[in-house]
Design a protein that fits this description.
The protein is an alpha+beta fold and 155 residues long. The protein is 47% helix and 18% strand. Strands 1, 2, 3 and 4 form a 4-stranded mixed sheet that branches. Helix 3 crosses helix 4. It is globular.
């Protein structure tokens, strides 16, 4: 018997440590429970790119996702940005704020990891302004929303 399938207009996915609103998400029923039916590795790459271009500040959970996705220890991650292991731990706990310039460097590192083209670095420069990051106090107000149809081949 084939599993029933459907598309959900919006689905809030929390499996990466922070909520992501998935739009037009294909779902399938597995053992009586509806689950999203997309390539999770691809989703993580799409989320990583979305975080690089996020208009507001990165949250502590988003920062931790980036570090873990890049398979870096807190010590190695800190070395990339000229800070100590303790500073990274404090960022991820939310007890110390990232400076806007360090946050921008993290976003650049993400694009470098994703092997972005030169044009994408220029797009980041034009999309995310340090002055705006400096004025934004809360990291949680800007939600990540991903339209599955834009990033996945969905029937």
């Amino acid at each position: 018997m084939k599993n029933p399938e459907r598309k959900t207009k919006t689905f809030v996915y929390k499996g990466l440590g922070f909520p992501i609103v998935l739009v037009n998400t294909p779902m399938k029923k597995v053992y009586g429970e509806w689950v999203i039916d997309i390539d999770m590795t691809r989703l993580q790459h799409v989320v990583l790119r979305a975080l690089a271009f996020k208009k507001g500040r990165l949250s502590k959970d988003q920062l931790q996702f980036i570090r873990k996705f890049l398979s870096l220890t807190t010590t190695k991650f800190g070395q990339y940005f000229g800070v100590s292991h303790a500073a990274v731990v404090q960022w991820e706990k939310g007890t110390r704020a990232l400076t806007p310039s360090t946050e921008f460097c993290i976003r650049l590192r993400v694009l470098d990891y994703l092997k972005a083209k030169a044009e994408e670095f220029k797009d980041l420069y034009n999309a995310v302004h340090l002055a705006v990051l400096a004025k934004t106090k809360s990291a949680n107000r800007n939600r990540i929303e991903i339209d599955i149809a834009d990033h996945f081949h969905v029937a």
